[in-house]
Write a structure and sequence with these properties.
The chain is built from 33 helices and 11 strands. It is mainly alpha-helical. The strands form 4 sheets. Strands 3-4-8 form a 3-stranded mixed β-sheet. The chain has a 3-stranded antiparallel β-sheet with strand order 5-7-6. A hairpin with a 6-residue loop joins strand 10 and strand 11. It is elongated and about 155 Å long. The N and C termini lie far apart (about 115 Å). The relative contact order is 0.04.
Length: about 800
């Protein structure tokens, strides 16, 4: 049986008409218009917002949206025109308060109006693409009040006057200024897309700021010192930063800072630096705090760092050149290098304490995270109601009628240019010296150090004194610190091979005369040089150390051999036995900077000892040849004075020994007689006699008693010589620095050493390039050799010509300015 059919229902509309009467829109609008008037009059106690909402709803529903929208616009316009008349009549001193009060009242009223017309907002306005109710209210207030020609200028003038009063240290009602600032921000953009706050208020504020600080800077420049001026600038920057946070838009802060920096710093940078109390004066008096303040203020100004670096560099060069050219310093190598090191310490401290920037690690750790970028936003129905939707984040206190924003919400976010204030700390934590100033310092030191032709020689002499232990007060750590400082100066030398030549000579004397305080320290310094310039730079020096070790072993085995045969000193009475203890240093030819001089005449006992060692050495090393260098040896002598009543042990050179032993058989001799007996070269003999008769320990007397040694001068044994020390070291008189002739000889030797290095560099470049033009070859060779010395283009060209003559290179047939490498 089929299921019963379901009944069907039909829904029909009402038969009576639902359309309103012809005057419905007019009557309804009258009700709404009166309600709007009551809202603006703050008489809302008898209003039913639900009923008013229904009226507005029905008008839109019955297609009276255009009538409703135009009526609302006309009503708001009429009300605002009345407000405009009130504001126009307000004195300028009270106009800010009046405008703020009217806006505050209008804004609160518009929240209720918006609620009544909410349905129109969501339907008709969206379809017709008209301004929403709250946007309409803001636009009308902007056009009829804020942009009113008779009102806008008094408002801006009053605002600027209050700001200027505060800059002049008067108390102002900053909460009111904050409210007015927020009012302009709420106005959003005008019909032409210009932001009202930026166009009307901020632009005028920036202009007045520039004018105010332009005047103030001129007054400060004439009244204050550089230090006082900078303090005032930092104070002003901090004040402006605080002012922006209290009652201006956050985007205004960097703009204000830029204007202040431009007027107070950028336009006076050169004048500030060149003041009598400027950077030079600060550097000379070690005012680290003031220099740091100057750097902080200048570093954000375009060209500021360049001016400071140039001034720093110029001052270092002037002071360094002045020091190194003074007569007192040029005479003393130790004082010369000490002055350089003291200057380096001084400016290192200045840069490490004053020219600081955030280190990379500190910047990385300070990068904001996603959570950290989320600023707390105060939520209130009032603020949401009148938000323009496109405004920038605000700072400062809210208007008196609005809730106070929490501190976190007022943190400056957005501006990419950092603010600089007096509270910025330059602590060591997270800070590092600015590399640009470090480079400027290094360039300055390099320039003035290389401006003196004696720098390399004097640095070697200073290192020589440190390694010989002339500075008795230095501990091991102090010696190491001094040597590290010398390496810093060494880096500044452009012609490092010149230093190498002098250091090589001084090292040889220390090793041969056993004057080093520590072999480990010697080797440590040579390793430092090796790290700076490579293996080839120190190859001969390391060979010298190896020779000393080999020599010690050879002498030890020779002594053992002689002792086993009973021929060592004191071992027997055999005529072949040695009369004294013999020590020999066996030097590798070419590794030691030995000045080859003829062998002087030695006593028979000494010659016997030398022949004995030669015999032993040749028996151990077949095919080798020994060449005795008596000018490099030393001897220990026992000398008796005061008619054999007082004995001293004299440590002298081999040449001095030969001279002193002559006086065992005679009381006096002339220079010419000594020369004939000893066969010591004339110049060397004069130095020997000066050290024995004119220096600190005068074991000989000279007639006449002049400072110079002449051929006819007579020398006698000084039997009355006395000294508290039992063991006396008498060193041959030698100038601490070279004379002109010696400098010329050294220069020639250095030039001779450079020739093969330049040629090797040319061949190395050409071997890789195969073909290269003249200019490019000069550049590459100079760069390749810059670690050792700075070759001149003329020297390089001479070496190129030499290589062409020897057929290592040929000129290109198509272009004579190019060279080809010949395999």
């Amino acid at each position: 049986m089929p299921p019963p059919a379901k009944p069907k229902f039909t829904i029909q509309g009402f038969k009576q008409s639902m359309s309103p009467g012809e005057d419905y829109a007019e009557k309804t609008w009258k009700i709404l218009q009166n309600a709007i008037g009551e809202i603006f009059a703050r008489n809302t106690g008898n209003l039913s917002y639900e009923e008013l909402y229904r009226y507005a709803y029905n008008m839109v529903l019955y297609k009276h949206g255009p009538y409703l929208y135009k009526g609302l616009q006309d009503t708001l316009t009429s009300y605002l025109l009345k407000i405009a008349d009130i504001v126009k009549k307000t004195p300028e001193s009270l106009v800010l308060r009046e405008v703020h009060a009217q806006w505050d009242s209008y804004r609160m009223s518009m929240t209720h109006v918006r609620d009544i017309f909410m349905y129109m907002d969501r339907t008709y306005i969206l379809v017709e693409k008209k301004m929403h109710v709250h946007e309409l209210g803001v636009a009308l207030f902007r056009d009829l009040i804020i942009r009113n020609p008779e009102i806008s200028q008094p408002i801006v003038n009053a605002f600027l006057k209050e700001v200027e009063r505060e800059r002049q240290s008067h108390l102002v009602e900053w909460q009111l200024l904050s409210a007015v600032s927020h009012l302009y921000l709420d106005m959003g953009d005008d019909a032409e897309g210009r932001n009202v706050y930026r166009h009307d208020l901020e632009s005028a504020l920036l202009k007045s700021t520039s004018a105010f600080y332009a005047t103030e800077s001129q007054r400060w420049m004439s009244e204050l010192s550089c230090s006082e001026y900078l303090q005032q600038v930092e104070k002003r920057l901090e004040e402006e930063k605080d002012r922006a946070l209290r009652y201006l838009d956050l985007r205004t802060a960097p703009e204000i800072q830029e204007r202040v920096e431009t007027e107070l710093i950028a336009k006076h940078m050169t004048s500030l630096v060149d003041m009598k109390t400027g950077l030079v004066w600060m550097l000379q008096n070690d005012f680290y705090t003031e220099i740091a303040r100057l750097h902080r203020l200048f570093r954000n100004i375009r060209g500021g760092d360049t001016i400071l670096q140039q001034c720093l560099k110029k001052e270092i060069i002037e002071q360094g050149s002045k020091k190194l050219s003074s007569e007192e310093i040029t005479k003393d190598p130790a004082l010369f290098i000490s002055s350089v090191l003291d200057m380096k310490d001084k400016y290192d401290k200045i840069i490490n304490e004053s020219f600081l920037i955030k280190s990379v690690a500190a910047v990385t750790s300070a990068l904001p995270t996603a959570e950290g970028n989320r600023a707390a936003q105060p939520a209130s129905e009032t603020a949401e109601a009148m938000s323009t939707g496109g405004g920038a984040p605000r700072s400062g206190a809210a208007p008196p009628s609005a809730p106070q924003a929490p501190e976190a919400a007022r943190a400056p976010v957005g501006p990419s240019k950092p603010s600089i204030g007096a509270t910025e700390e330059t602590t060591a934590l997270g800070m590092a010296p600015d590399k640009r100033y470090v480079n400027a310092e290094n360039e300055a030191f390099e320039q003035f150090i290389n401006g003196s032709s004696s720098s390399a020689e004097y640095l070697s002499l200073y290192v020589d004194r440190v390694l010989r232990g002339d500075f008795k007060e230095l501990s091991e750590d102090d010696v190491e610190a001094k040597l590290n400082a010398c390496i810093v100066v060494f880096r500044f030398l452009q012609n490092k091979d010149v230093f190498g030549r002098y250091f090589h000579q001084h090292l040889a004397k220390r090793l041969l005369y056993n004057r080093s305080t520590s072999d480990d320290t010697e080797r440590s310094f040579v390793i430092k040089l090796k790290n700076e310039c490579g293996y080839l730079y120190t190859a001969k020096m390391e060979t010298m150390f190896a020779d000393m070790r080999t020599s010690a072993y050879s002498v030890c085995t020779y002594k053992s051999s002689m002792e086993s045969r009973g021929l060592w000193q004191g071992s027997s009475s055999s005529p072949d036995a040695l009369e004294f203890d013999l020590g020999v240093s066996i030097l590798t030819t070419g590794a030691w900077p030995v000045q080859t001089l003829p062998m002087c005449a030695l006593p028979l006992s000494v010659m016997k000892a030398l022949h004995s060692f030669e015999t032993y050495y040749y028996s151990c090393h077949e095919g080798r040849q020994l060449s005795w260098q008596t000018n490099m040896g030393t001897a220990d002598l026992k000398a008796y004075f005061h008619n054999f009543k007082r004995k001293h042990e004299l440590v002298v050179t081999t040449h001095s020994m030969s001279v002193l032993l002559l006086f065992n058989t005679t009381d006096s001799m002339t220079f010419e007689e000594i020369l004939a007996e000893t066969k010591i070269p004339d110049a060397e003999l004069k130095r020997v006699l000066q050290s024995l008769s004119l220096a600190k320990y005068r074991v000989l007397t000279k007639k006449p008693a002049t400072k110079e040694v002449n051929p006819r001068d007579e020398f006698s044994f000084n039997d009355s010589f006395t000294n508290k020390q039992m063991r006396i070291r008498i060193q041959t008189v030698a100038a601490q620095k070279e004379d002109e002739r010696e400098k010329q000889e050294t220069s020639e030797r250095i030039e001779g050493d450079r020739k093969p290095q330049i040629e090797a560099a040319i061949v190395r470049v050409m071997k890789s390039r195969r073909i290269l033009d003249h200019h490019a070859l000069i550049v590459e060779v100079t760069e390749l050799l810059s670690g050792r010395f700075q070759p001149s283009p003329v020297d390089i060209k001479k070496r190129i010509e030499s290589l062409i003559e020897r057929e290592f290179l040929v000129r290109d047939e198509a272009d004579q300015r190019k060279y080809r490498y010949v395999a």
